[in-house]
Amino acid sequence: MTAPRTPKIPYGGDHNPEQWPEPVWDDDHRLFTRARIDTLTVGVFSWSLTQPAPGTYDFTILDRILDRAAAENRQVCLATGTAALPPWLAKRHPDVNRTDFEGRRHRYGQRHNFCPSSPAYREYATAMASRLAERYAGHPALLAWHINNEYGGACYCDLCAEAFREWLQNRYGTLDALNDAWWTTFWSHRYTDWVEIEPPNALTEHWRGPDHTAFQGITLDYFRFTTDALLGCFLAEKEVIRAHDPDTPVTTNFMGMFRPLDYHRWAPHLDFASWDSYPPLDAPPTWPALAHDLMRGLKDGAPFWLMEQTPSTTACRDVNPLRRPGELRLATFQAIAHGADAALYFQMRASRGACEKYHGAVIGHAGRDDTRVFREVAELGRELEALGDATLGARTPARTALLFDWDSWWALEISDGPSRLVKYQEVVHAYYRAAREAGADVDVVPVTVDPTGYDVVLAPVLHMIKGDLRERLEAVAARGGTVLTTFLSGRVDEHDRAFLADAPGPLAPLMGVRVDEWDARPPQVVQPVQLGELTCEARLVFEIVLPRGAEPVGTYGADFYAGTPAVTRHAYGQGEGWYVATDLDQPGVAWVVRRILARHDLLGPYADHPAVETATRVAPDGTRLLFLLNHAPEPARLTAHTTATDLLTGKRVEDGEPLTLDPLGTAVLRIQ
Ligand code: GLA
Ligand code: ZN
């Protein structure tokens, strides 16, 4: 199953009419019509209304919300609402509340904080999902199911401890296998009974927080267990929905690069992926782009939904800047360029009270339609309506893959040594950014990928190597492709046990190097690295590399390893393996990645315009769409490299003609 079929990009977002008297609903719908809003996500936080007491269900308000939506010709993404508990449930069954990392059992409050192993939670949540599905399966407004909301976090209660032990028994079968995997003879940890195993937290294996563990093996397994435990909650709700409604697509809203959950383990169970994009303050545009591509990669390149973004400002950060005029439009077209088939907001009307009353909304507290934000939302609604179905279902024909691996992320960041300062996302982003800024479309894919269709595979900080990945990567190079990996890759197996071999372990033959030792220094220590004409800077980790077939491409400039290789290239079969032994700055990474892309003729036509992003989508009928996104506040003056029609303006450009993008402007070129 895929995302719901719609005649145009669903446009709208989270709507909470249950917080308002009905005359306000009239205003909402009047304004929605004005802004071409056709899709409402409802019921995300309505459990305490739909079930005010254990045996009492009351769907009067939800009925009215859905009926009203249908009457207004709007579609509904219906949430099961199980992410925020009603107070009576927490009071009656205290085990639905989580026990935190410090071992404290929480009491009623907040949201997104239920224990995934609590039988009471499971029972009440699935009962709610089942009743909703029974009631609304055939409702004319129903477009998609939205289970729960932003699953995340971990629980360390006794129920979770018990569930963890069961999970471990399934994984390892015997305690001997577990002791071997976790290397428990170290510090006298050999377990002789499953009941001796405690969840890894501040009371057990950890100190100084969640990343400092004495035993990486148990901590990694707890991340995996938590991923599966929350997935179990999702699956239980999905199953009861399916019993009443075999056809309507089901999703849950992810959070992009979200460390606590391995979304690749979830992906097969969603009918379509969706996510909430709230890029960090001052993030470069490649940061949300990387997350979009990661989400697109979850379902093998199928389009995803942008389930939430703010029309103007967030509220949860210490400082919450506004999206400048034009930024919302640009961010929305960027999402579409990367594979989004829906553009939804949090939220339609600003909450009157509680912690999100200052969160941006399409309609503010004064209920006006003559605000800048409303005007921008309405103008975008008009453009999306005009775009119709042109982009729906379109795929991305990338020839460059970037491997993204939660296990490597976890293992790298919970490792003691060589450096706590290396951040997985930052290194991965640097390589992604270099490829995107050079104009390459990039698929961000799991390590289980079949890489046959790719010319270039980027595998930065791939700390853990599992399964037959080595063989698959070697095959890429053997047939003429290029594989890149970096420092701190190929170090550990799936249990975080070091390979009994020279680094980069299984990747060493492909890379043609042997890492002899490694130096880690504080961030102010800069190592100059010479790459052709470019002198760039490297920091944090400096691996000392002995070429074993590879040729040096760049060398360190200082310290006792001055003159030794920092970047190498190895001819392998018809292709190449590139090894980057240190944390190069962005110009250094760009130099390396552009070399590789150039070898495969993958540099884009606007590779010399750093603020211009390009992305290609190919519609189901074969039409090629080229998105041009100008991230600069000045116009971008380009030359068309093909004859095309801009779907947003209807204007035609001929190959070789000047093509100007407005400040923060977008063109969606249909290539002739
Ligand atoms: C998340 C949640 C929403 C809301 C927004 C605010 O994405 O899903 O309910 O809290 O954040 O940014
Ligand atoms: Zn628990």
The CATH topology of the largest domain is given as: TIM Barrel
CATH class of the largest domain: Alpha Beta
Overall pLDDT level: 98
Q: Major β-sheet, in short?
A: 11 strands, mixed
Global morphology: globular
Number of domains: 4
Helix content: 25-40%
How many strands in all?
A: 27
Question: Radius of gyration, rounded?
Answer: 26 Å
Descriptive overview:
- α14 (424-437) crosses α17 (586-599).
- The chain folds into four domains: 11-155 and 228-387, Alpha-Beta Barrel (TIM Barrel), CATH 3.20.20.80; 158-220, no CATH class; 400-599, Class I glutamine amidotransferase (GATase) domain (Rossmann fold, 3-Layer(aba) Sandwich), CATH 3.40.50; 612-671, Immunoglobulin-like.
- The mean pLDDT is 98.
- It contains 17 helices and 27 strands.
- The protein is 30% helix and 20% strand.
- The protein is of the alpha/beta class and 672 residues long.
- Residues 98-99, 115, 117, 155, 157, 159-160 line the site of zinc ion.
- Alpha-D-galactopyranose binds at residues 149-150, 276, 278, 308, 314, 316, 346, 356, 359.
How would you concisely characterize the structure shown here?
This protein is of the alpha/beta class and about 675 residues long. The chain is about 30% helix and about 20% strand.
